[in-house]
Amino acid sequence: MNAPRHTARRMLPAAQFISAMTQRFGDRFSTASAVCAQHGKDESSLPPVPPDAVLFALTTQEVSEAVKLCREHHVPVIPFGTGTSLEGHLFAIHGGLSIDLSGMNQVLAVRPEDLDVTVQAGVTRKQLNNALHGTGLFFPIDPGADASLGGMAATRASGTNAVRYGTMRDNVLGMTVITADGAVIKTGSRARKSAAGYDLTRLFIGSEGTLGVITELTVRLYPIPEAISAAVCAFSAIAEAVNTVIQTIQLGVPVARIELLDAIAIKAINRHSKTTLREAPTLFFEFHGTPTGVGEQAQAVQAIASEHGGMDFEWATRPEDRSRLWQARHDAYYACLGLKPGARALTTDVCVPISRLAECIAETAADIAASGMTAPLVGHVGDGNFHQAILVDPEDPADLERAHRLSARMVERALRMDGTCTGEHGIGIGKQKYLVLEHGDAAISVMRAIKHALDPDNLMNPGKILPPA
Ligand SMILES: Cc1cc2nc3c(=O)[nH]c(=O)nc-3n(C[C@H](O)[C@H](O)[C@H](O)COP(=O)(O)OP(=O)(O)OC[C@H]3O[C@@H](n4cnc5c(N)ncnc54)[C@H](O)[C@@H]3O)c2cc1C
Hints:
By secondary structure, the protein is α+β, with helices and mostly antiparallel strands.
């Protein structure tokens, strides 16, 4: 399995396009190479590919006008949120215009009575939660990076809370989207359920900018739980930790978060975040509910963990201790990069049914040991989703090749176990080769038909998700 190639024919924008954009958007349209370079990279180990120009958009109307100009001049459009994606989603492999939505950061309407909020697509998850301060409500989806809600919807993101609150798929009620012809459409509604026609909201969720540009979203909010407690528990073997997770989920204990880190990841965190966690496979838990409910959940999980050899069950009930613990968990990616100076990570993102998780992690651990690579495990294991961050020297083709082979074997293993090649990061260009393997030719033909119907000129983030025909 080779490292992904991402060279393609570039379509340079015509001088008339540049002049029309400059006239309309002034200095919020840029062709400066430093600005383009910033918009053609992500957090993956893949080499960046900058766009030809960048527009810093402020309104839905502006995005619509820009997409219309792109269509007129046959210029590809690549929406840009915060650039934290991990599979080359943003690379301008056919050139084109990056539409940066970070200036579209207004929280438009908070409706506590309906537990929902409407935001512009550039609002990040942390900006949203800061804006909700004092309302008693929160937005739970928390990818490790402070991503934009538009980008999170476009990648169908999730995070540590998904085991209790679901993913973007479950939490977006409706969106405003600019389609490939520049039309402004509304998908969904604020109703909690609807049986009205095709579910366009869910079609655009996970479409990675290949079908349209999301400019506004209405998402669900949740009351901040009356009681929250967090805990960490170390195990002498990874299998014991995984079996604790499986039993917890199978018994229906409504944990809010249950995350697994292996000994190498904990070592990296201790170094990076100055924590003093035991350097052993460790589960991070969080419980949400009433004080009694949280106590019962915690007791149930502690009993399961003890049965499986759990040690040092440590509690963090004060908000500052919990934040420190979860910040350390969220910093795990950068902490792991620190294990090998100059390294980039090939993150991997398989997800399997919970009953196959122990088997999948055990086979993967043996494979990594045999490969001689350093690949700490960090996982949203309550969902059956885990990442091995394979540390690679981006300048060493042999190292990259070994990492891609290891990653390919992880995907093949996950698919054999009825799982998926990506639980949350998406396809971009990095995982295209697995799409047919996962869905089969007939399903891919349906996806191609949808893409063609909505984007007949192939201008919306071209070359992503669907492998070349
Ligand atoms: C340290 C770290 C931890 C992470 N942890 C997680 C995790 O726990 N869970 C998880 O799911 N992901 C995780 N990620 C990956 C990343 O944060 C998510 O994929 C996130 O959803 C990307 O959002 P973004 O705003 O950065 O999008 P970008 O990277 O800017 O864009 C991603 C894709 O979405 C498209 N896009 C962006 N905005 C729009 C829009 N408004 N309309 C249409 N298309 C758009 C882009 O064209 C691109 O294809 C992590 C990344 C890092 C670096």
